[in-house]
């Protein structure tokens, strides 16, 4: 269903029953991506370099640590509970392409835009 660069067939993924082997493969791949991002965003070496150079973290680093990381951690919780890809607001399925683009997405676009 995907190659090593993550070229997934989103239409096929969205038509699958969840869970299925292919969906679970996608979720496992997403989990790896989320863990890599968390490690990169919360890298203490990067923070030390920024602190030494500027005396503070960049606004983007603050945003990643304080905002993005929280969503990624919640997405990991959703993966572990078997609810990854289900909107936390309306309980509808979040399209696979949105999850690919925003691995920490917890809401579908309708609910995200309505907030």
Report on the architecture of this protein.
The chain is mostly helical and 115 residues long. It has one domain (18-114): Four Helix Bundle (Hemerythrin (Met), subunit A), CATH 1.20.120. Helix content is 63%, strand content 0%. It has six helices and no strands. It has helices at residues 10-15, 21-41, 44-54, 59-81, 96-101, 109-114. It is elongated, with a radius of gyration of 16 Å. The N and C termini lie far apart (34 Å).
Summarize this entry quickly.
By secondary structure, the chain is mainly α. It is built from 6 helices and no strands.
- Count of DSSP-assigned helices: 6
- Strand content is under 5%
Mind telling me the CATH class? Mainly Alpha
What is the count of distinct domains? Answer: 1
Indicate the percent of residues in helices: 55-70%
* Overall mean pLDDT: 85
Can you tell me the CATH architecture? Up-down Bundle
What is the 3D form?
elongated
Task: Itemize the secondary structure elements and their pairings.
Layout: H1 10-15, H2 21-41, H3 44-54, H4 59-81, H5 96-101, H6 109-114
Which key features would you list for this structure?
115 residues, Four Helix Bundle (Hemerythrin (Met), subunit A), 6 helices
